[in-house]
Model the fold of this input.
Amino acid sequence: MSNKDAYWNKTKNHMIVTLALWAFFSLVIFMFGSELNTMSFLGYPLAYYMTAQGSLLAFVIILFWTANKQEKIDEEHGFSEREDD
Amino acid sequence: MFKGDFIKNLPKIYGTYTGGFIVFIILMAIAEQAGVSAKNIGVMFVAFTVLIYALIGYLSRTIQVDAYYVAGRQVPTVFNGMATAADWMSGASFVALAGGVYFGGYTYMAFLVGWTGGYVLVATLMAPYLRKFGCYTVPDFIGTRYGGNLVRACAVFVLFIASFTYVTAQINATGTIASRALGIPFEAGVWVGLISILICSMLGGMRAVTWTQVAQYIVLIIAYLIPVFWISSNVGGGIFPHLMLGDEVARLGELEQQFGLVKNSAADMKAAGVPGGLKYISGTHSGVPEGGMAVWKYLSLAICMMVGTASLPHILMRYFTTPSVRAARKSVAWSLFFIFLLYSSAPMLATLSKLALMDPNLPTGIIGKSISEVQSIEWVQRWSEVKQVFIADFNGDGILQLNEWFMRGDVVVLATPEVAGLPFVISGLVFAGGMAAAMSTADGLVLAISNALSHDIYYKIIDPKADTAKRLLVARVLLVIIGAAGAYIASFRLTSILGSVAWAFDFAMSGLFFPLVLGVWWKRATRAGAIAGIVSGIASGTLYLLWVFPKFSVPIFGGVNTPFLGIDHLRFGLIGAPICLVVMVVVSLMTKEPSPAVQKMVDDTRIPTGKAILGKQH
Done:
């Protein structure tokens, strides 16, 4: 397998992991909204908290994490860009 | 000023700008104390900020193609994040989002998840690859990847429908805010708004829009956050509302029990003469509605908004402006961070505003008080005069019940500062913020449409030999025409007929999502597949919209149709996008696989390093 194919396989797997996390925070937890709402976080009902703030924050964290991880994959395979800031 | 070290000086330039804006707010506060009227303060806020944007627009003028279309591809990560956040957060986000949460509670907040979660799709599936490709517009990618004028024209068509649906609503919002702040009629406000928008974008294209959007983001986020924190400490919500409103949310649940959540019949509301567009609280604030259908309604709306986000050209094109692929990825993360600052505050503002009106223990509470007493409150009188709030005593007991208080959603953002006893300088600031939000989105949309028409239709299809001067002239003329057409339609207030902003997401998702994703992720996708997918997706989505939306279905199909599986007019992308996918895959597999040259192009797109597919000037 060429370096390009290996790189693309890793990128694909990384994409799948990222989208699984995304689906968990955007869809899966809200399938159980009424169950979650019986629990509480910071004094908020949990499902309310997640839709008002928690999932949004999770997306921000996922995005920074996924960009850093992808940069590592770039470096491993020698496809890292140097000159940008 | 805009040569060489301009990019390095950006933090200093925008730092000074932010400091200057804060000094301006303080000056206005002093002016208020000195007796300058509330109206004049509003005028000065809007006029001052719009003049600054116009100045930035003028300084960013350009005669270069890549500066005009992609800001010279040198916008640093964090600044592009701010510009995208301003591009994204519309006048509707700014003035109506908190109101939506106020009335819709948990159910409405599917929009919050949808409008943020979509960025994960943008970052993983689209932005880095489109940046590597080196295109000027979204149809430019589709036209080059699949090859041919027909597929390019199809993509422009979808872009036009989606963005134009969106832009009339934005120009409408600009007009509303301009008319209220400047005290001029709505129709005049629309044209004032349009001129401000064009000054910011015409001379410098994407470069000018980028730098004004950064300035607009700074104004809009200051204007949103200061009132939220201030109101919170004024009504006893604590100094950091995002972490401290647990008790208030629980208290709202108790008050809902106490007052009762009653649904008014349409006949009662009509008989009482409730003005159109005003709403009352009938759902719970934090409670989750029971049942599978309620869950599906929540999820389906979130899916449509997320997938739509990842297909909207005016957002995707912001990531064409970064210096590298890596910067494009990081920039998506920064965009969402800046959006998060506002979106996570909207539910807190809704909670505070609701509590201020509902809690009888607070001096601001009105529910449960006698109607004559409430009608004598100054802000109630002022907003009643302009038909933004309304009281209907259905049971005739002279006491204001929860279901008897009607209000327009915008009032939550625009009036809560004065309800909570903040000085008028804050209301003036909120006007400036709303104007910034509406203008920045309208700028991005008008530019997305006119760039697609000038680059993809005029230059790539009609006159490929046109020189730079002619291309940029055409781009600017189209910009004015598109803006004027949007303003003309907005001035008729047809937006209630044109429907919801959500439609733009559904249109984009129906026709663009899968052609973009598969263009990168599936080498086997062919030109015929893409054309068939775009056409069938947008056609089936649009037909379904006509069938399901009563205002269209009654004249066309002669009756009101029950939505299929709960897929109503806000969610019609769930019909269009799957059809687009299936048709595109089937037709691609039936046609000959793309040539080795095209396959190599896809391979190169997937790798961050190396030359862009399309050159610097194309």
Chain A touches chain B through 46 residues (CB under 8 Å). Chain A has one domain: 3-76. The first strand of chain A starts at residue 40 and ends at 41.
